[in-house]
Write a structure and sequence with these properties.
heterodimer, A: mainly alpha, MetI-like fold, two-stranded antiparallel ribbon, 2 strands, globular, B: MetI-like fold, 2 domains, 14 helices, 0% strand, ABC transmembrane type-1 domain-containing protein (chain A), MetI-like_sf (chain A)
């Protein structure tokens, strides 16, 4: 059989892989190099090597430390809540109840909304007094006029909620296909043994989707800071840096303050940390799988 | 299995809660986009009563936004073509490699895509500035292709895996070259998967914001960025911004069912078998 297979010439694969390596590795090398230099965009010829100076600046930069903390919060909290909400939604959608079937087709919508549009949509929804949230509150007889984006804590919570809004559909979809792959026989056996539906969920569904949740968590951790456009539109990183993660701070440093070498250092530190933690988690997950 | 009451209550309650959470902001935007200025800031807030298309006609007549919409379409479609030209042969080739080589290449492709988009923004900006391609569609197409190729290779190679090897082998025995086998046999069979992948690429490119924001000024600005112009600085007229959002969502809404089909795939047994063995 192997002899009559199409002969794969590397000519098929090389252009794509070559383009990919060129378009990713060269820029990354350039950013790393830039982070070790003193670079002024107006006088690029005066660039000189300054070693770890840009990295040393982190220690005395309160805004950097704040952004690192915000990054941590904006990765961990949304991912955990996306997993919990996604699991709750997946279990509900697995039921295929009459009247909720359309949900199975439509619930993915937020995950493909352009992030900038999502930012405007939520900004409209949260306008104090006249937005959609105030409308919903008025349906329940409440008078809700608070400016959620105006104070530090509520702005951060708002960004987390929007982040969950973007992420829950994909998480629910992946967990739903994981749930759908559990054989019905297991539930039937549990039912014969007198287990209620809730017990079956707790003792069968949740343990069996846990391994999938680990992989989904890593995947989402890499995706979740893609809400940069939402922050750009919704809060602009404010108030007072409360919703300014490192990628947002690096963006401002590069394109508003034109401090490109420092921005490069922030991005290198940010990327190394987030990719490093994710790859480490993947290796842990696959190690436990092999061990089983 | 016994249909106990708790199970149904849970199903309905949770579905209803998520339907409210996931859809109400979008429906509110739709309602706002149809409101007359007088209804916009009525208190307490209301759902639109007398729909008016005035905001839609206003933004279509807006030269900046309509040319940005055209830019978005041109950039997205060009990205599909360039990505496919690179990825279809590569995915076909990878799908026909030995297991270990295939796994190694797919892992490499995925690893190259792992870094957050923001790390690329400075080098790409400096590079395109150097070669005078800032504010051109070409720059955006190159960047979008860079982000789309790994995804496309990943999905397409899974679709080529599903093409029956017997048919390809029969074609080879009849004297077809590898290239002929790919174009005449495998691509037509994998067509629906290729279309689904093209749709994902379109969405990715249509939604792209960061590079469109930094690499364009006026000429090549895409709709995802031009939409910011409609955000009022002082909270008055949100109608145009809402209408622009709804227009941006039209192709997305049309494509959602396809997204579901393809995004489920990574959890398939077939996929598991491919990656973990």
């Amino acid at each position: 059989m192997a002899s009559s297979r199409p002969k794969v010439s590397s000519a098929l694969i090389t252009p794509a892989i070559g383009f990919l390596c060129l378009a990713t590795l060269v820029p990354i090398a350039a950013v790393v190099a830039l982070s070790f230099g003193d670079f002024n965009i107006a006088f690029p010829e005066k660039t000189r090597f300054i070693g770890l100076y840009n990295y040393a600046r982190f220690l005395s930069d309160g805004r950097f430390i704040n952004a690192a903390l915000v990054t941590f919060i904006l990765v961990v909290v949304p991912v955990v809540l996306q997993l919990l909400c996604g699991l709750a939604l997946a279990i509900a959608l697995k039921e295929k109840l009459v009247g909720t079937r359309w949900m199975r087709a439509a619930f993915l919508l937020p995950s493909v909304v352009p992030p900038a549009v999502g930012g405007i949509v939520w900004k409209l929804f949260l306008i104090p007094g006249v937005g959609g949230l105030s409308y919903l509150a008025s349906l329940f007889g409440h008078n809700f006029e608070a400016d959620l984006l105006g104070s530090k804590t509520s702005a951060l919570i708002s960004v987390i909620i929007v982040s969950i809004w973007f992420g829950v559909p994909i998480v629910a979809l992946l967990l739903l296909s994981s749930l759908d792959s559990i054989p019905d026989e297991i539930y039937e056996a549990a039912n014969l043994d007198g287990a209620s539906w809730a017990q079956a969920q707790w003792h069968i569904s949740i343990p069996l989707v846990l391994p999938a949740m680990g992989a989904v968590a890593v995947f989402q951790a890499l995706e979740v800071l893609g809400i940069f456009p939402v922050i750009f539109v919704l809060t602009g990183g404010g108030p007072a840096g409360a919703t300014e993660p490192l990628n947002f701070y690096a963006f401002l440093t590069a394109f508003t303050y034109l401090d490109l070498d420092y921005s490069a250092a922030i991005l290198v530190a940010f990327t190394t940390t987030i990719v490093g933690v994710c790859f480490w988690s993947i290796s842990q997950i696959s190690a436990t799988r092999v061990g089983r | 299995m016994r249909r106990d009451l708790g199970r149904r209550i849970y199903g309905y309650l949770v579905s209803a809660a998520f339907a409210l959470f996931l859809f109400s902001p979008i429906l509110w935007t739709l309602s706002t986009s149809l409101k007359q200025p007088t209804e916009m800031f009525q208190w307490p807030p209301v759902i639109v009563r007398e729909p008016s298309a005035q905001h839609y006609t206003a933004i279509i007549a807006d030269k900046d936004f309509s040319s940005a919409l055209i830019n978005s379409i041109v950039v997205s479609c060009s990205t599909i073509i360039l990505t496919m030209a690179l990825s279809i042969p590569a995915a076909f080739g990878i799908s026909h490699l030995q297991k270990t080589a295939m796994r190694r290449l797919l892992t490499l492709v995925l690893a190259l895509r792992a870094a957050p988009a923001m790390i690329y923004i400075i080098p790409y900006f400096l590079f395109f500035r150097q070669v005078h391609l800032v504010d051109t569609k070409i720059a955006l197409i190159i960047v979008n292709t860079m982000f789309a190729v790994p995804l496309a290779i990943w999905y397409l190679s899974a679709f080529f895996d599903q093409v029956p090897r017997e048919i390809e082998e029969a074609a080879m025995i009849d004297g077809a070259s590898t290239l002929q086998t790919m174009t005449l046999i495998s691509i037509p069979i994998a067509k629906s998967g290729i279309i689904a992948t093209a749709i994902l690429i379109f969405i990715g490119s249509w939604n792209e914001f960061l590079f469109a924001l930094t690499l364009t000024r006026d000429d090549a600005k895409t709709a995802a960025v031009a939409i910011l112009n409609f955000i009022p600085f002082e909270g008055t007229d949100w109608g145009k911004a809402a209408a622009a959002c709804v227009l941006m969502l039209v192709p997305i809404v049309v494509f959602v069912p396809f997204v579901k089909k393809i995004r489920r795939r990574p959890n398939n047994d077939r996929f598991r078998e491919r990656v973990k063995r």
